[in-house]
Design brief:
Layout lengths: L2 H6 L5 E3 L8 H9 L4 E4 L5 H14 L4 E6 L5 H10 L4 E5 L4 H9 L3 E6 L2 H10 L4 E4 L5 E2 L5 H11 L4 E4 L5 H9 L4 E4 L13 H9 L5 E4 L7 E4 L2 H11 L4 H8 L2 H8 L22 H16 L7
Parallel strand pairs: 1-9, 2-3, 3-4, 4-5, 5-6, 6-8, 8-9
Antiparallel strand pairs: 7-11, 10-11
Helix pairs in contact: 2-3, 8-13
Length: about 300
């Protein structure tokens, strides 16, 4: 079997992205049932709600599941302990270093897979004991780094001794095949799953993704050190104008407060942050998670002429 599949005990080396405010038990369990690794996003949700989502997902699938922890969250300490209490098998991390939690997680047998935007961060995470490195390029949706997936992945592969997963801009079999050719042993996909039936975001959000073109996303917050990629709308234009005017960081943060919730729950086309990667322009249809993963696998297998999960 593919080394990532063997480590995670999954059928296909496809990991679902964290997707804050979006990746709940419904989405994660569907991805796991279809052969990938489903991920529940802790985001900033109440600890008891995260506990309920984990337990709900375990009732919906008997396959491996993971949780994404945004380390800058005020509740990160509580989330970290909760993963041990609930016997979560895998954790992906972002927005910080998991150093203070690593020994606790490793002692509990949790597989730790940090998302990194640079080679330096990959080296740091491996030294801490990361089992897998997820190298995410700037093409991704949400919080991003500067280096492209094409340039970042092979450099991380050349440096890391642990398996490397590619993320950012991957939405079809061609992207998966390219990731493997760059040395990755798996992929993390987010934007493609946004339009799936099991993803519970507002229909306006899904339609934004379906209608997106290659130039439809914008990065805001770069001048404040918090770059976020989302589909262009009235809100992104407003934020970019704030940056251009040199507004203080506090004003930027206040303007962005609640904007992702506005998109996910309300479908507010004017005041929502519709996070999506540059691959949104490749996503053209709504379908189930199972149909999506089967299509990704079939496309990749045709390109390789063999089962890519055995590579």
């Amino acid at each position: 079997m593919n080394s990532l599949c063997k480590l995670l005990n999954i059928k296909y080396p496809i990991i679902q992205g964290g997707l804050a405010w979006i990746a709940n038990a419904n989405l994660a369990s569907a991805v796991s049932n279809a052969g990938g690794l489903g991920i529940i996003s802790a985001g900033n949700m109440p600890v008891d709600l995260l506990r309920n989502e984990i337990r709900k997902a375990k009732e919906m699938t008997d396959k491996p599941l993971g949780v994404n922890v945004m380390l800058m969250s005020p509740s990160a300490d509580e989330y970290a302990s909760l993963l041990v209490e609930e016997k979560v098998g895998v954790v992906t991390t972002g927005a910080g270093s998991p150093a203070k939690y690593m020994s606790m997680w490793k002692n509990a047998g949790i597989i730790v897979m940090p998302v990194v935007p640079s080679v330096a961060m990959a080296v740091s995470m491996e030294k801490l004991g990361a089992d897998v490195i997820i190298a995410e390029g700037t093409e991704a949706g949400g919080h991003i780094g500067e280096t492209t997936t094409m340039a970042l992945v092979p450099q991380v592969v050349d440096t890391a001794k642990v398996p490397v997963v590619a993320a950012g801009g991957i939405a079809d079999g061609r992207g998966i095949a390219a990731a493997f050719m760059l040395g990755a042993v798996g992929v993390q996909i987010g934007t493609r799953f946004l339009v799936c039936d099991e993803c519970m975001i507002h229909e306006n959000y899904k339609n934004f993704v379906i209608k997106a073109k290659d130039t439809s996303t914008r990065v805001t917050g770069r001048s404040y050190g918090r770059p976020v990629r989302a589909i262009r709308n009235q809100f992104t234009n407003k934020i970019l104008q704030l940056e251009k005017s040199g507004a203080p960081a506090e004003e930027f943060e206040y303007a962005a407060l609640g904007s992702l919730k506005n998109a996910v729950l309300l479908g507010d086309e004017e005041n929502g942050t519709f996070m999506a990667g540059q691959s949104a322009g490749m996503v053209k249809k709504k379908q189930s998670i199972k149909e999506t993963i089967n299509e990704l696998v079939d496309e990749t297998n045709k390109l390789f002429g063999s089962r890519f999960d055995n590579l």
